[in-house]
Amino acid sequence: MDTENSEANLDGAKLREDLAAATPEEREALLRETVRAQLASILPEATIEDDSNFLESGLTSLTALELTRNLMTLTDVEIPLVAVLEYPTPATLGHYLAEAFTAVAEGDAAPAGTAAE
């Protein structure tokens, strides 16, 4: 069943381990690829490139919610749904996630989507 496959793909322990050990450039590349892979699993008929616009690729509000939930599960970083609109490509969302992951991991900032004081 598709749900079973999705759950199997959402064990982010290895990804988080790789992200923690990565350089900033490697971290961004890993997250960009993670965004592309998750988007491809949600929209299997779409061709997803680094500069593919999510909405032009067929992402809807429901699939955007699924994408953000999957990415939050994989990264343990809080991602506001609006991030998909503010960072509408795998490259830009991957960059955003890399910065958010770094900030959370270093304890320098609140999780993504929350206001830093």
Automatic annotation (TrEMBL):
Name of protein: Acyl carrier protein
Domain Carrier: 26-101
InterPro entries per UniProt: ACP-like_sf, PKS_PP-bd, PP-bd_ACP
Lineage summary: Bacteria, Bacillati, Actinomycetota, Actinomycetes, Kitasatosporales
GO molecular function per UniProt: phosphopantetheine binding
Keywords of this entry: Phosphopantetheine, Phosphoprotein
UniProt keyword Phosphoprotein, yes or no: yes
Pfam families with a match to the protein in the record: PP-binding (PF00550)
BP GO terms, sorted: antibiotic biosynthetic process
Segments of this protein annotated with the region Disordered: 1-21
Domain of life of the native organism: Bacteria
Species, as recorded: Streptomyces buecherae
Record bears the keyword Cytoplasm: no
